[in-house]
Amino acid sequence: QSALTQPRSVSGSPGQSVTISCTGTSNDVGGYKYVSWYQQHPGKAPRLMIYDVNKRPSGVPDRFSGSKSGNTASLTISGLQAEDEADYYCCSYAATYRVFGGGTKVTVL
Amino acid sequence: EVQLVESGGGLVKPGGSLRLSCVGSGFIFSDYSMNWVRQAPGKGLEWVSSISNGSSHIYYADSVRGRFIISRDNAKNSVDLQMNSLRAEDTAVYYCARGQFGQTDYWGQGTLVTVSS
Questions:
Q1: B chain contacts of residue A42, beta-carbon cutoff 8 Å
Q2: Cβ-based neighbour number of residue A9 at 10 Å
Q3: Chain B residue with minimum CA distance to A29
Q4: Listed residue (B53, B94, B87, B91) closest to B72, CA to CA
Q5: Which residue of B60, B102, B108 is in closest CB contact with A45?
Q6: Under a CB-based contact definition with an 8 Å cutoff, are residues A60 and B105 in contact?
Q7: pLDDT for A71-84, tens place per residue?
């Protein structure tokens, strides 16, 4: 049950795109289509942004997109906005457990 | 409107026990798997436990297996987390979240558990 690997931080200017990677193994990310991404602002509960690798829940802007290749999933934020500054976590299903990434802080310059 | 409300957090001594509860409303509780996820102060999210809608499938993180017990009462729209043999490293905000396969679409506001002498 090792945590998925995410970069500690990424940054970009308003309007730019940033991509956050999430690396696991064939037992989690690589083995299932159930990868999700969460946004968390300070002092708030996490918010689901992406599920099933690349699907957006109702209400999530289409600036957020997800993908997966092998054991690595990615979250891309296009047209970065000030309100996107937050912590982002990936999560994967792994049959008998679920596992989160360590989190990535997105800074809007 | 979907709502999840946790309760039961507080200060407990190492080795002690605490029972967290989460009540759901605004959806058919018995249709959904439920989860507990925690976040230590200044740290990331950590999955703790999941229970299927009918309680037939229950899973735990290695860090809590044998000490924590998850259960649910669909008649009361509630899911509980019984936490025993608590350690300092269990100190965290505990969130209740709805969803299966690790994909949770609604979260409660969290309840703080502090393990300290």
A1: none
A2: 12
A3: B102
A4: B53
A5: B108
A6: no
A7: 999 999 999 999 99
- Please judge whether A48 and B50 are an interchain contact, meaning their C-beta atoms are less than 8 angstroms apart: no
pLDDT (0 to 100) of residue B55:
96
**Chain A hits for B59, Cβ within 8 Å:** 96-98
Q: What is the pLDDT of residues B80-114, one digit of tens each?
A: 999 999 999 999 999 999 998 889 999 999 999 99
Q: Tell me B113's DSSP state.
A: E
Q: Is A101 helix (H, G, I), strand (E, B) or coil?
A: strand
C-beta of residue A16 within 8 angstroms of C-beta of residue A2: no
Q: How far is B60 from chain A (nearest CA, A)?
A: 7
State the Cα–Cα distance between residues B1 and B25, nearest whole angstrom: 8
CB B31, CB B6: distance < 8 Å: no
Q: What is the total residue count of chain B?
A: 117
